[in-house]
Every structure is written in C-alpha cells, then in structure tokens.
Amino acid sequence: MFENLTNKLEEVFSSLKKAPSLDEKQVDEGLRGIRQALLEADVSLDVVKDFIAKVKPKALGQEIIRSTSPGNMVVKVVYDELVNLLGESNSDINLKSVPPVPMMMVGLQGSGKTTTTAKLAKYIEKNKKKKIMMVSLDVYRPAAQEQLKLLGEQNNILTLPVIEGQRPEDICRRAIGAASLNGADIILFDTAGRTQIDFQMMSEIKQIESIIKPTETFLVADSLTGQVAAEVAKEFKNTVNLTGIILTRADGDARGGAAVSMKYVSQVPIKFLGVGEKIENIEVFHPKRIANRILGMGDIVSLVEKAAEDLGEENLKKAEENLKKGQFSMQDYLSQLRQMKKMGGIEGIMSFMPGVSKIKSQMDKSGIDEKVITQNEAIILSMTKKERENPKIIDGSRRKRIANGSGTDVATINKLLKQFKMMSEMMKKMSKGNLKGMSDKGIPPELFNQLK
Ligand SMILES: Nc1nc2c(ncn2[C@@H]2O[C@H](COP(=O)(O)OP(=O)(O)O)[C@@H](O)[C@H]2O)c(=O)[nH]1
Ligand SMILES: [Mg+2]
Description:
flat; eight-stranded mixed sheet; binds magnesium ion; 452 residues; 434 Repressor (Amino-terminal Domain); Rossmann fold; single chain; binds guanosine-5'-diphosphate
C-alpha cells in the first residue's frame, strides 16, 4: 500500500538525515523532493502547494535548523502536517439513533459499493454487536441485487428478499418495515452507480436520501483513480449529506494520491479502507497510522491492536506495563511466542514494524523460527511460576529439571535463556518509545533514532 510514495519520501528523508546540519538551501531541496514525490503519487496540485506552504516555515524554523538532529525534526514536521491533511483523529460510525438506523452507500459503478456493503455489515456486526440488514437498491444492473443476496448468504448477513421489478423508492419503504420485524439494528442500503456522475444518478440518490434519512452516507471510491476520487467525492458532497469516505482497492494502490487528497479536496473524512476482495478486508482509517505507513515508519499501533485481538486486551496490557517497567518476564515471553505463532510468525510481524531490517537481523541472530517457537513454548511451560517471573534463579539443577520436563536438553535451555535475554533487551528498547503513546502523541523520538 502506497509503497511508491513511501520509497520516494524515504529517499528524501535519508539524505536530509545524513546531513549533520541543515541550511535553508538543503531544506528547500528536501521540500522540492517531497513536492515531487507527492505529485508523482497523483496528489492534487492544490493539496501539494498548500502542504509545502505549511511545512516550509516550520521546517526552516531556527530551533530546527540549529537542533542536533535537524533531519529528524523536519521529518516530524512533515509527519504532523500529513496527519492534519489526512484528517486528524478517526471519526467513528454514528449509531446514536432509533433502530433500525438507516445508512447508505453511494458511488460510481465498479467502485466497490456492493462488496463494501457486505464488508461493512460484517465489520459492524463483529465490532459493534449490532444486527444488520442489507438492501440492494440497484435495480438497473442485471444481477446486482442477486450479488448482494449471495454475499449475505455466504457471510451470514440478513438481506431484504428481492422482489423483481420493484422501484427503489418502494424497496426503501419495504426495507424499513422488514428491518423492524426482523429486529435489525441497522439497514445498509446499497445503491446503483453509474460509470460517471450524471444528473439521473444524483437525483435518484437524493430522492432515496429523502425517504430513508440516513444517519451515515458513505461514498465508496476507488483508490486507484487517484485525485479523481477526491473530485468525485466533492461532487457527491454537493448533492447529498456525505458523512464519510470508504476508499477501496487501497491494497493495490502504490501511489496513495486519493488517500492524501481526499479530505482536503472533498472536506469529507476517510473512515475506512478496502484492502482486498475478501469480506474481512476492511480497515478503520486512522490518519496517524496511515501517516506512519506513508512515511515508512511502519505501523506499530496496528501491530499492537492485532496482537490484542489475538491475545486478549488484558494480557497485552499487562505485558505492556511490564515492558514499560522493564520487567519482561518469561510469562510475557511465552505470550509473545504465542502471539507470534498466531500472527503468521516472524514475517507477519515484521511487515508492521519500523526499522524492520535492523530488528530482523537481530532476530535472525537469535535464531527464532517456527519450530523453535513451539519448542520454547514447551520449555517455558515446564518452568515454575517463580522461574517464569524471575529467570535469573534458573541455576544448573533447575535447568536439568526443565530440560527433562520439556523433552529437551540443557544446551537447549541455555539457548532459550540467552534468546530471552536478547528479546527482553530488544523489548526494553522498543518500550522506551511507549507503544500506546504513538496513537495520540505522534512519533516518539525513539522511532526517529531507528530511522537513522
Ligand atoms: N482488490 C480489491 N478489490 C476490491 C475491493 N473492493 C472491491 N473490490 C472488487 O471490485 C469489483 C467491483 O466491486 P463491486 O462491489 O461489485 O462494485 P460496485 O459496482 O460499486 O457495486 C469486485 O470485483 C470486487 O471484488 C478492495 O478493497 N480491494
Ligand atoms: Mg454494486
């Protein structure tokens, strides 16, 4: 996702960071590089101009130029402005209304409306514990209603039965009655789109809007169309009360122009990203995380959340607290190992991390692979609670006992204890940056140091 933009910006940043001091000329040159990178990513020209105009005076500030690491400070300025541009904090779905709460999906044909309707339904059911009914108002494209019905059947989501030949207005009215009868909390209306904006489509969705009075109207837009997606959003916003954008095909978008331009051009925030064809391929859009990704800083917060999903919030919080205190225990190590297994092993985790190559080589050195993970799990399970809390007490005779218990030998136990030491040192290093703080306080200085 957005890798071309990331690579270009990384090039600019690395030359800025290499310089022991920066003068105005060097900053200017860096900004020219950033400008070029954004334009090549198909970010709208207005957005680029405004962005550079905001970054420039800050990047040229005396406190930055004179600081000990001016390059990193410039990156931080760019990061902050990018977060602003992307929309600051994520705005959640509005569910505060009397059920069945109506929501509507609009957008051009082929943008991914129908697929996204099902993705969003599943997302809301899972994360907000609400019952959804999906309704297709696309009476024009052959089999469009069937497509939604099928998605409903495949994913166990309620859909309104199709009545051939019924007009969209009548389907709306029938849907509201049926949703109440079926105890649905939310109705998701999928509408018909055309290949480009035209009067007929706009007047139809306006009419639908006046009948169903949606609390949320999502524009589904194709990320691959770049800044055009933002222009389309602007047009829709002039007609209906758009409350959010869902940007699809972000998985295949190397440039990122749509994501970067969207909020500025349309004044509507992106709320979700479509990141694949499967039902679960939808992600909440977090501006700070996306900015981290675009600037090549990885996505630590997503990693932490994914781990939380697998591990249970509580364990993770505890592990995190221990980390902060610098008390990484064997029990935490066991949790880490289990997390790793669940998250697709080392490779899966690495893809989220900043400074990937550095840590990866460190891990390679420590020799952690899938088989070792399973073996280490057995070893830790053979330890007593005390030993897990304080591995320092594991002397020769304890090592022998643990080796017997886990069907290994003392050499293997020694190796694990060594790995644990390395791991806990690495964790301590990472924890100094305070993972949680990332989401509300911007980038911790630790991350910058890793980027050097
Ligand atoms: N790779 C990828 N494909 C998507 C995504 N969202 C939708 N698609 C695909 O785009 C095509 C058109 O989607 P559809 O929902 O029928 O578009 P609609 O005409 O707006 O209803 C389908 O083949 C989808 O599988 C996405 O986020 N990533
Ligand atoms: Mg459709």
